[in-house]
Design a protein that fits this description.
Shape: flat
Largest sheet: none
Radius of gyration: 17 Å
Structural class: mainly alpha
Order of helices and strands: HHHHHHHHHHH
Strand content: under 5%
Length: 153
């Protein structure tokens, strides 16, 4: 049986899951709890933000694209990435590398997630993997080619 990588063993448990578990525990104790730890907004990324991001990317204005994405919830960043074409998506990912968190990656559909992982530097993917639940991190790393796996681990 293969051993788990030392780098993979350093991945921290999900704080979101811990909060959800705590809310569940408090409910079981009879407390009235409204948990806001899991989920995403019930609305799409505003169309004007999508249009402005596309315009900024088309103009090569990465600073403007960053400014538009920075205040967004991770689920909205994921939604924005999914609404863009492949070239725009990669340009936005390049502009907002430090905003590409485990939460954003977890919200992406499989196709876009794979595209983003290919577009991001290995060091950024490694940081993202450290933010994910162990199962999600393993799945993310397993989907990479062997060279990228070695670079990350």
């Amino acid at each position: 049986m293969p051993q788990t990588s030392i780098a993979l063993a350093r991945i921290a448990p999900s704080q979101t899951t811990a909060l959800t578990d705590r809310a569940t525990q408090l409910r079981a104790e009879g407390r009235d709890i409204i948990s806001l730890s899991v989920g995403e907004p019930d609305f799409a990324t505003p169309p004007h933000v999508v249009a402005a991001a596309k315009a900024a990317l088309d103009a090569g204005d990465q600073a403007r694209a960053y400014d538009l994405a920075e205040p967004l919830h991770p689920a909205d960043i994921a939604d924005l990435l999914e609404l863009l074409g492949p070239a725009e998506r990669r340009a936005l990912a390049s502009a907002i590398t430090d905003l590409m968190s485990g939460e954003v990656i977890a919200e992406l559909n499989d196709y876009v997630r794979e595209d983003m992982i290919e577009a991001l530097p290995a060091a950024v993917v490694a940081e993202i993997a450290e933010q994910l639940d162990t199962d999600d991190a393993v799945q993310l790393i397993e989907d990479l080619d062997e060279g990228d796996q070695q670079a990350i681990l």
